């Protein structure tokens, strides 16, 4: 898979990921593969996770200039952040959440993000899927997000954890404080997107299966594997993999019940070959799993399952332990 490169400050070249394998075949008689991939749970995730947690959507370097806009769909809510004249970052709901439609069309109710000419809809794919953004307030498409009035849209909570932009749909001053500053390697970053055909929770479990828990500092779940990779995980959607001289960070965004978009940022000089290989391998493993139990149950996996269960309550079923794992 060839990775996109961008001209703004955050990226100057491209890098390669291992080729993706074919999508997993589904058994038409089985319906949903397990309760983790049900439409009902997806709806609850929108209400109880994406609307109530700090969500990573990108990096400050993606919007370096005044008026730069970074769109992101959080659950079923279209939002954007903008670099303001004083250097701060503002976050708002998009001007029109359902695009130009009076109601949500049937093709947009399947659980998969559609490719739509109206860019700001909470049921369509984001305007900019790469990184950094190329959209500015002066772009003719900006009105899809900003509207035509000078009055700002309804605010969204936003904060920087180091260079990571986090948003909270609960408002400008939600009670939750979010993670402490997140350390990233300095310098320019190369960017990519990867979109495996797997549920986002499956992908979490596949990645965590590769690591043994260790005691790190801060709010991250931390681990280390036999190859020397170090993991920092920030549920619901940020993973950072460190290896000697380089670093790979990934933000996860469900774009379908069994489809997850990963926005990748590669920093450092080493190329992060082990991190890239691990992520591609985990994506393939998550695609081939038929239930969450297939992905094993180590200490890190149990912690994230508990994280989901705490937020989703009795509607979230904990899989029976099966083979796999470490």
Can you describe this structure in just a few lines?
The chain has 326 residues and is an alpha+beta fold. The chain is built from five helices and 13 strands.
Topology:
Layout: H1 39-50, E1 55-59, E2 69-74, E3 77-83, E4 89-93, H2 143-146, E5 157-161, E6 164-168, E7 189-194, H3 200-208, E8 212-214, E9 221-224, E10 230-234, E11 238-243, E12 246-256, E13 259-268, H4 273-288, H5 299-312
Helix pairs in contact: 3-4
Quaternary structure type: single chain
Average pLDDT for all residues? 81
Say what the CATH topology of the largest domain is.
Naphthalene 1,2-dioxygenase Alpha Subunit, Chain A, domain 1
Broad shape: globular
Amino- and carboxy-terminal Cα gap: 27 Å
At CATH level 2, the architecture of the largest domain is Alpha-Beta Complex
Which percent range fits the helix content?
Answer: 10-25%
Measured by DSSP, the beta-strand proportion falls in: 15-25%
Organism: Paracoccus aminophilus JCM 7686
GO molecular function: 2 iron, 2 sulfur cluster binding; biphenyl 2,3-dioxygenase activity
Keywords: Dioxygenase, Oxidoreductase, Plasmid
EC number: 1.14.12.18
What characteristics describe this protein?
326 residues; alpha+beta; Naphthalene 1,2-dioxygenase Alpha Subunit, Chain A, domain 1; Rieske Iron-sulfur Protein; 2 domains; seven-stranded antiparallel sheet; three-stranded antiparallel sheet; 5 helices; 13 strands; Rieske_2Fe-2S_sf
Mind explaining what this structure looks like?
This is Biphenyl 2,3-dioxygenase. Keywords: Dioxygenase, Oxidoreductase, Plasmid. InterPro entries: Rieske_2Fe-2S_sf (IPR036922). Its EC number is 1.14.12.18. One of its GO terms (molecular function) is biphenyl 2,3-dioxygenase activity. The chain contains five helices and 13 strands. It is an alpha+beta fold and 326 residues long. It folds into two domains: 35-50 and 183-315, Naphthalene 1,2-dioxygenase Alpha Subunit, Chain A, domain 1; 55-168, Rieske Iron-sulfur Protein. The chain has a seven-stranded antiparallel beta sheet, with helices on one face. Strands 1-6-5 form a three-stranded antiparallel beta sheet, with no helix packed on it. Helix 3 (200-208) packs across helix 4 (273-288). It is globular and about 55 Å long. The two termini are 27 Å apart. Mean pLDDT is 81; it is low at 1-32.
């Amino acid at each position: 898979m060839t990775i996109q490169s961008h001209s703004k400050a955050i990226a100057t070249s491209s890098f390669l990921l291992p080729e993706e394998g074919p999508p997993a075949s589904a058994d038409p008689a089985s319906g949903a593969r397990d309760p983790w991939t049900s439409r009902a749970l997806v709806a609850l995730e929108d209400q109880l996770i994406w609307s109530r947690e700090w969500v990573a959507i990108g990096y400050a370097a993606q919007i370096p200039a005044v008026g730069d806009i970074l769109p992101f769909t959080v659950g079923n809510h279209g939002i954007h952040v903008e670099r303001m004249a004083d250097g701060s970052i503002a976050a708002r709901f998009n001007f029109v959440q359902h695009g130009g439609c009076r109601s949500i069309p049937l093709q947009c109710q399947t659980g998969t993000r559609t490719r739509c000419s109206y860019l700001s809809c909470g049921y369509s794919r984001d305007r900019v899927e790469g990184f950094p953004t190329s959209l500015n307030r002066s772009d003719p498409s900006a009105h899809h997000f900003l509207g035509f009035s000078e009055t700002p849209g309804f605010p969204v909570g936003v904060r920087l954890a180091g260079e990571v932009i986090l948003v909270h749909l609960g408002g400008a001053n939600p009670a939750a404080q979010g993670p402490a500053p997140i350390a990233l390697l300095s310098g320019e970053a190369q960017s990519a997107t990867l979109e495996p055909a797997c549920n986002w929770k499956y992908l979490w479990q596949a990645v965590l299966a590769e690591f043994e828990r260790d005691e790190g500092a801060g709010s991250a779940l931390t681990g280390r594997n036999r190859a020397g990779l170090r993991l920092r995980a920030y549920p619901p959607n940020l993973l950072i993999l460190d290896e000697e001289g380089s670093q790979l960070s990934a933000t996860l965004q469900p774009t379908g019940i069994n489809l997850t978009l990963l926005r990748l940022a590669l920093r450092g000089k080493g190329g992060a070959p082990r991190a890239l290989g691990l992520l591609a391998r985990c994506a393939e493993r998550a695609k081939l799993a038929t239930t969450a139990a297939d992905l094993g149950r180590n200490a890190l996996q149990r912690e994230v399952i508990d994280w989901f269960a705490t937020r989703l309550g009795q509607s979230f079923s904990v899989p029976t332990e099966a083979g796999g794992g470490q």
